[in-house]
Amino acid sequence: MSEVSRAGAAQEQAQTGVVRGEAIRWAYAFVDRPAERFGQACDFWTAVTGTKLSGSRGERDEFVTLLPDGGDACVKAQGVEEGVGGAHLDLAVEDVSALVDTAVRLGAEVVAPHDGWAVLRSPGGRLFCAVPWHGESVRPPVVEGSRLDQVCLDVAPAAFATEVAFWTDLTGWESLPGSLPEFHVLKPPAGLPLRILLQRLDTDRPGSAHLDLACADVDAVRARHEDLGATFVAHGARWTVMRDPAGGTYCLTGRDPETGGLPAAG
Question: Residue range 211-228: average pLDDT?
């Protein structure tokens, strides 16, 4: 590495908390749903995100990408053979091996190494993938007043502090307490498409992950989603829990679809 490159790497590390090659260049939210209901899931999520499906890939044709009309894709879907599904993150980097090494040093384990990418498990048990960055840089637009912009990691109380520290150190993103004591937010650098929200569960039950949409008008978005086959589950303090036609839960949140932030106090 040249002296110029070393200086650039040092500057980037100071800015992001991670060395060049590990910096998160893009992120994908994965919609994981049971294989037998995968078609329903794809129909619903392409409709609510204003996307179309790529061709399928994988050994069982279990993977697809949701392609937006504008910008770069940041949502994919997977048909899973076991369990009820959920969500997970793919973190795209220039140097997958470097990210994997860093994740392991921070307490993660490698679940499945592949040629050029890897499946890992965080210290608190959340699966995620390290994948190569292919130059993605432009966020897809807001669609019908909403944007899928957040992956929420639901964490048992005993693991919460460890998970917050792990994801903060791994990403190098701005790390802030949430609007309520049970939340912690990781905000990416400008231009990246997804935030990470960590939610401390009220009991030490197994954790999970789900998708959050930022909505300019939650009630209007809820009505549209119900027209597309989703069902209402529950109201929270600042969110509405929904179930998609494939049985997966997700949340509609009253946040600015452009910035991801909560509305200013009146």
Answer: 98
